[in-house]
Amino acid sequence: MQALRELQQNQGATFSDAGIPLSFGNTSGLDAVSKDPVLVDRSHWGVIQMTGGDRLRFIHNQTTNTFTQRQSGEGCDTVFVTSTARTIDLTTVYITDDALLILTSPGQDQRLIEWMDRYIFPADRVSLTNLTQTMAVFSLVGPGSAGILKQLGIEPGADLPYGHHQSVDVRSVSVRLAVGSGLGLPGYTLLVPAEGVAHLWQWLTETGATPVGETEWQQLRIRQGRPAPGHELTEEYNPLEAGLWQSVSFDKGCYIGQETIARLNTYQGVKQQLWGIKLHGSARVGEVIRAGDEKVGLLTSVIDTPDGSMGLGYIRTRAGGAGLEIVVGETRGVVVEVPFLARGYLAADG
Prior knowledge:
By secondary structure, the protein is α+β, with helices and mostly antiparallel strands. Helix content is 19%, strand content 32%.
């Protein structure tokens, strides 16, 4: 990974103390992402490999989505939850011929390994390996992403479902290419062994992808509405409150937290929901959201933009949703929809 960091430094990157690229001094990619692709280094996210003959059954019983009938080449988002359906992490799982690759949020890989290890019994044919230090993760974000890949000799295919993935060679570098950018924007996620990362990053940027760092990713995350651990994904909230309905199966049978989630759906018991918050001025994470004289929620993430601040926050369902005028601290704002989140009550999948 050292060769990748040197290359990124030559491209103008500044880094955190943990070696994460924070910015490349170029925010134009954020303004152009609707038509031009940006390239994000997500190598500080976790990658867990699960092997063994019981792997599909095990992940099916451990998380909110369905897995027992999935085939190699498929993938989906799924949520790890506690027994009372409080969120631990939103992950993406890719099914291969002989393993599952679980993409976790930053800093959540070892936590999830320890969590799953509690439920692996001696008779279970399941093994876990942490690949975070040996696997890099890049995301191409924006509708021009397919064009970048085609210039490198890859035909990603048209109209493939989210999570679909395949193993491809990019100039002799082996890459697992998956549909989906990790946001509510078109794009691809690329998983690559560490020894090939510098070459792949260079080829992608030379072909026209604009590199952006963690600072820009956070801006995209909040604008798109992707919840994150420590902010929107905590044991204070469940996946339905967090807007992760698309990651929940309602007819898969028993799994950890299933009874609580089923009850919330059946009796329409979601008391608060995650929304975008467009503010006219600055605000701080943790500030109370008010509608009139009533406390209706809490601000969980916020970024500054040229037009004021944009945030995410939980709002009581009975207070309203999109269009609700609110006050956060001393700043006025309005509740807005964001692309990544889903909401609603479903009797069954689909």
